[in-house]
């Protein structure tokens, strides 16, 4: 007799499952729209989703017209791309880039299902530092958006190692198929280099103390390989901080050191520098570019490049001050709090 296999229905464990993989409703936003809305209204980002930032500010500035050609240099979940595509009203074309081989496939499928196929949208898995090649193929752009950094899907996925909040491999690569993971980088880095990385990338005040602990672990072959081990190393380094202040100090150092490692393994400053350098030639005369940054190092580079471009007459106009998301947007999406937007218009 054939044995009957009793298959249990996938169960949403409790009303608030904590594990990323168990949040299956949040992973399927089209099907569970009510759950998604509830999660967002509580100021959280559903697992497997990313809430686009400064959408109205970007669209107000870009003034996209049907028939134009645009580039989203950082596709992510495709939220901005989708809103920009809506403005094309079926006429024109968009290119969208991302280095992430995992999320790009899901986003491509999601956008195709929403009616944005290859006739109107070309998605490429490439680094935006190759904007010159993309612009050559496309014939230049009327509008460009770059929303730097990482998406919520990347941060929330423990396998990617972007946060100390979940245990996982200390990876932090936007493209895990290329280059060295953060754990590999930590094994071979020198003390001086590590101190410089923490200080220059994230202004870490305890850079020396944290680097000392990591070097000690390397010497004893007790390598820092997971996000939790990285947090432990930071806790050990900050043991001298008075107990009442320690928890907060460890949290802040974790945020800064993870950011510093991410910037390092993805060469984020070098990549942004190349992008900003090639940007004017990728824009058509009168073309517009908006860039969202998430920390002072990035914003400084953008500000400097736009200012130099305006001085050289390459840009006819650049934003005088940074544009910030509204208080309402920050309340709805806490990840928007550190966002700064700048824009520029290519000279005619
Ligand atoms: C903040 S998310 C973008 C979210 C997107 N605007 C949306 O609305 O869904 C940043 C994305 O840019 C990608 N990215 C970061 N640096 C990149 C680079 N140098 N080249 C291409 N993509 C990059 C990341 O993999 C991530 O998916």
TrEMBL record:
> What is an annotated GO biological process for this record, any one?
rRNA base methylation
- Its predominant location is cytoplasm
Q: Which residues form the signal peptide?
A: none
Q: Which domain of life is it from?
A: Bacteria
Cell location = Cytoplasm
> What SUPFAM superfamilies does the record tag this protein with?
Putative methyltransferase TM0872, insert domain, S-adenosyl-L-methionine-dependent methyltransferases
Keyword field contains Cell membrane: no
Reactions listed under catalytic activity: cytidine(1402) in 16S rRNA + S-adenosyl-L-methionine = N(4)-methylcytidine(1402) in 16S rRNA + S-adenosyl-L-homocysteine + H(+)
Q: What is its EC number?
A: 2.1.1.199
Among Gene3D superfamilies, the record links this protein to: Putative methyltransferase TM0872, insert domain, Vaccinia Virus protein VP39
Q: What class of enzyme is it?
A: transferase
GO cellular component annotations, sorted alphabetically? cytoplasm
Give UniProt keywords alphabetically. Cytoplasm, Methyltransferase, rRNA processing, S-adenosyl-L-methionine, Transferase
One Pfam family it belongs to? Methyltransf_5
Q: Does the keyword Transferase apply?
A: yes
- Tell me the GO molecular function terms: rRNA (cytosine-N4-)-methyltransferase activity
Per UniProt, S-adenosyl-L-methionine binds at: 78-80, 98, 128, 147, 154
HAMAP family with a match to the protein in the record: 16SrRNA_methyltr_H
Stated family: Belongs to the methyltransferase superfamily. RsmH family.
UniProt function note: Specifically methylates the N4 position of cytidine in position 1402 (C1402) of 16S rRNA.
**Protein's name in the database:** Ribosomal RNA small subunit methyltransferase H
